Recover the amino acids of this structure.
């Protein structure tokens, strides 16, 4: 996985965090369910990646970013660094 590819996943998480007031909070069963419930936000994240970096996010990058965004909050003292599944 290239460095830029990984950095863009972090961009997804950061952008979702920035627009967190617009996220429809609930227990999502899947990334697809999140996407459908938050389609406007999904589109905004992709648009901002294009405008800021001239980069088109892949479905997998968006999905991994959402997975990281939705994971339970952690404490540095009680956890290891987050590792995306390859």
């Amino acid at each position: 996985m290239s460095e830029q590819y990984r950095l863009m996943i972090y961009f997804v998480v950061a952008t979702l965090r920035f627009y967190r007031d617009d996220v429809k909070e609930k227990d999502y069963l899947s990334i697809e369910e999140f996407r459908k419930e938050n389609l406007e936000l999904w589109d905004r994240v992709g648009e901002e990646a294009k405008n800021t970096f001239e980069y088109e996010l892949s479905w997998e990058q968006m999905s991994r970013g959402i997975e990281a965004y939705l994971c339970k909050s952690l404490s540095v003292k009680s956890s290891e660094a987050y590792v995306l599944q390859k």
